[in-house]
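[READ THE FOLD]
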Amino acid sequence: MNPVFRAIIFSGLFLQIGIWVRNFAVLLFVMEQTNGDAFAISMISVAEFAPIFIFSFIGGTFADRWSPKKTMVWCDILSALSVFAVLIALIFGTWKVVFFATLISAILSQFSQPSGMKLFKMHLPESQIQTGMSVYQTVFAVFMVLGPILGTFAFQSFGINISIAITGVAFLLSAVALTFLPKDRKLDEEAGKTTLWQEMKSGVSYVLHKKELSLLGLCFLGAGLGLGFIQPLSIFLVTERLGLPKENLQWLFMMNGVGMILGGAGVMIFAKKVAPQRLLALGMLINAIGLAVLGLSTNLWLTLTAEFFNGLMLPCIQIGINTLILQRTEGAFIGRVNGILTPLFTGSMVLTMSVAGMLKEQFSLIAMFEIAAFFFILGMVFILPLYNQKAETKSLDIQ
């Protein structure tokens, strides 16, 4: 196994343990402290998502200026230190500092994540990128299933203090894993001669000048808008469409998670045979059909089957997108491209999430899921011009 790939995977494993233990421990702790206050619980999501809007593009630009290994190691160390600082404040001060454990880690991840993408680009041969991304996304998929169990177990068994300490140790272990990466290559001297603002502008120009990346951005927009409509409404599939107690929602999540694990493994096997844009188009199409079925279904097994196929195809979307970004972007622009496209997806998702409840009252649950399916079809249509295209990363002269 490629040593760079091995170090990134082990780092990812430790990070996922830390993130899921932190997220669920904080969620359950805040619910306990506030008796389930909706505003306090929503602030956890704000702490997770707000840094993506504010810091993603800035973090991506700095990731292009800084050495990726050093950036990732320091981000993990600083995340661990911030978590331990929160732990001390928890012991001697107020419980409300737990929000900062999520906020600071989320900010630092906006600098670390694009650096990880740069390492994939720098150290993996073109033929191995899609396989590498498949393994990486499968790790995320496994934790979508195991993470909530792990986080809940840690909090219920050890309480908030030990859970936060586990998070800090996991971040430190991630930093240790990254020290096994080869030394960073010397960065282009030209990078130091431009200002941060000039580099941010050139990043936007780069995306606008590259047809593939512009289309990918529109695809992100469609998927984000679609997901936002249904993200807060899954519970109503169980209570309204299936007429079951709300506790049965866990079975829908479980089927989705199992599908994601199998989907990630499947993409690993076929990675070299299927182009990433075809994976992405197929994933968008099947997810659109799955969402349409979910909205219409009143049968538990049909709903579970649709959830399974949605989960099965989600890695196709994630791996297709990440592989396309890596294949169609020059190494010097990876951070900025990532920093532009990610907020497009998250921003559009949060936008429709914020109006989903209100629109459901005006229309119906079926209408919401069918609208979401439409946006996935729209996203797929944007990517179709790339369907038969071969991979290429031509340099662009951008002023």
User: Anything to note?
Assistant: The domain at 196-385 is CATH 1.20.1250.20 (Growth Hormone; Chain: A;). The chain has two domains: 3-182, 196-385. Residues 126-178 form the longest helix (53 residues).
